[in-house]
Amino acid sequence: MKFEYLCHIKLYTRLHFNILPLGNEFAIVSRVFPSITKLIQYFVTTKSTISTLHDVFLRDPVPRSWWELDFTSIARDKRIGSGDFGEVFSGTMKTKNELLKVAVKEAEAEASIMRKHAHDQIVKFHGICLFRDPILIVMELSPHGSLDRHLKKNKAIAINVRLGYAVDTASGLTYLHNQFCLHRDVASRNLLLFTSQDNVGHVKISDFGQAVILKPEETKFILEDQNTPLPIRHLAPETLRSAVFSYNTDVYTYGVTLIEIFGEGETPYLGFQTKKAANLIKQGIPPVHHLQTPPEILEVLTQKYFPRPPSKRAHMKDLHILIKKFMKI
Question: Domain of life here (predicted)?
Fold first, then answer.
């Protein structure tokens, strides 16, 4: 594959100058350099013109942002996940000091959202490779995979551990809402499992392929593209009825995720076809909870997550505080 390199300059208008690749070197105005960085540094420091026709000088170079990664520093290994919103691979990233294990996702729009957020319960964003196809998002690699798989494989998880997963998710979602971000796809399959130094399992929110950022004065997002794939079984009734997403709908999907956490990671509305599940949701009928779900959680689900009308749902920050209190019981 042949790559073209351009030097973009903003003067009275935008000017573009071709940089000629010569094997492992780069040439412009009859000068050859071992790298593009050296080329730019030369013209900035010497104040030499970069054009043979006009006096054009490089004054203020725009460096690559910390999150813009060199494609050659990333190596993809095996596929570890896939879905409607992209494929995920395990891999490595070369840094100055180490070879870091990472997760690599073929995606584009969600990178602009992920790079704006940093929180203990949000999967860490390392950067993005922009300059070749496919565009790659590089992020923290979970050593234990998704929570839904963990729940299905380990059915004897203690209630207090499950409460910990619930608290972590609430913490991350509260942070996102404080940043005016709707995740729109909260589910146990999008929670990744990590182990802390004290050997306690924690989860972090991942997959921002459906996430949107609201303006401070906005309270909802209306989906206009009716062909967009959606996780039907986790959606709130008002989303299915009118394609509206809000902080309230994130609260509802978090409630569905709680049912998964205190169950065995079973798919919501298990046994029903998607169309039937959608009809049940529109009627305001939540998924069936597992028998081992603590009664205090059931009470919260009924009163705070699935009340009618939706405006009576609690705010995420208040639910986070409430769920944390259960950890002390």
Answer: Eukaryota
